[in-house]
Design a protein that fits this description.
The chain is mainly alpha-helical. The protein contains 13 helices and 8 strands. Residues 70-142 form the PurM-like N-terminal domain.
Length: 296
């Protein structure tokens, strides 16, 4: 916060709403995973670094081609293929909407596979349901492990009378904030992207999960970019520019397509019944420029 404050103080102006929202979502738990990466009790380097990254470094296997640097991880399968894998938890969305939350989690993983390298093909989903050992009767929350696993009747009482679900019972369902995925559209998009990949029509691809365009374009355009939000295809009218910029989108990918490849690229998208729009360009300005004409 201090660094952000100092930055805008140097510019001698207050931040725009789109700047604040971009910074907020970038440092949100959804995007940054602060809890997962932070020190916890005796695990000083955090769960992620201690149990996942450290184990991978210690194994140091030659089959690991890409780890911790892309949307998914890739290992060598044989001389011709890599196996790409992505694991994701979706506990919070699934708590709000069990079916929709789990479904969008699965489709989000699929998007990460499509967004690996210049694109990989999703071939299989696996599902794991993890919980503590009930026989011990303890759930790890603190050093003394004093928190009991709650009995079903107590859980039911909390669910029925809890604040969040009370809103759901009143008609203001929190499940509306969970985006529902569309597997058919995702399959069309996946097929189209892979065909365009094999023809060498684009240079980079990533998905619009988490922070939406702000994440995908921000990650791909580290050297600079310019975007016109009025060109973005929308599901709903009346969205503010900052909402268009940071909203997570299901079954939507951002690709870097050289201008000379656009006609053929659009032709392939149309063939697969996939909508496409050109919203800006990457450059070497070192600046992130996001525009939205008045009245749009």
């Amino acid at each position: 916060m201090k660094a952000i404050k100092d930055y805008f103080k140097k510019l001698n102006r207050n931040p725009y709403d789109i700047e604040l929202e971009s910074l907020a979502q970038t440092w949100s738990e959804h995007c940054k995973h602060n809890i997962f990466c932070s020190p916890i009790d005796e695990i000083k380097d955090g769960l992620y670094a201690h149990y996942i990254k450290r184990a991978t470094r210690e194994i140091n296997s030659d089959i690991c081609v890409s780890v911790f640097s892309d949307n998914a991880g890739g290992i060598i399968f044989n001389d011709d293929y890599l196996i790409v894998d992505k694991v994701e938890t979706h506990n919070s969305p699934s708590a709000l909407d069990p079916f929709g939350g789990a479904m969008t989690g699965v489709l989000g993983v699929n998007r990460d596979i499509v967004g690996f390298g210049k694109g990989a093909e999703p071939i299989m989903n696996t599902y794991y349901f993890c919980f503590a050992k009930e026989a011990k009767g303890k759930f790890y929350r603190d050093k003394e492990r004093t928190d009991e696993i709650l009995p079903p009747k107590y859980i039911m009482k909390e669910v029925i009378h809890g604040v969040n679900v009370a809103e759901a019972l009143s008609g203001n369902s929190p499940s509306t904030i969970v985006q529902i995925g569309d597997p058919i559209t995702q399959k069309k998009l996946s097929n189209a992207a892979l065909e365009a990949r094999d023809l060498g029509l684009y240079n980079a691809i990533t998905d619009n999960g988490a922070g939406g365009l702000s994440s995908s374009i921000g990650e791909m355009g580290k050297d600079g970019f310019e975007v016109d939000l009025s060109k973005v295809l929308l599901k709903n009218d009346g969205m503010a520019p900052w909402e268009i910029w940071i909203s997570e989108s299901q079954e939507r990918m951002t690709l870097a397509v050289p201008e000379e490849n656009l006609p053929m690229f659009k032709q392939i998208m149309k063939k697969h019944d996939v909508e496409v729009c050109v919203i800006g360009e990457f450059n070497e300005s070192g600046k992130a420029v996001v525009k939205c004409p008045k009245g749009k």
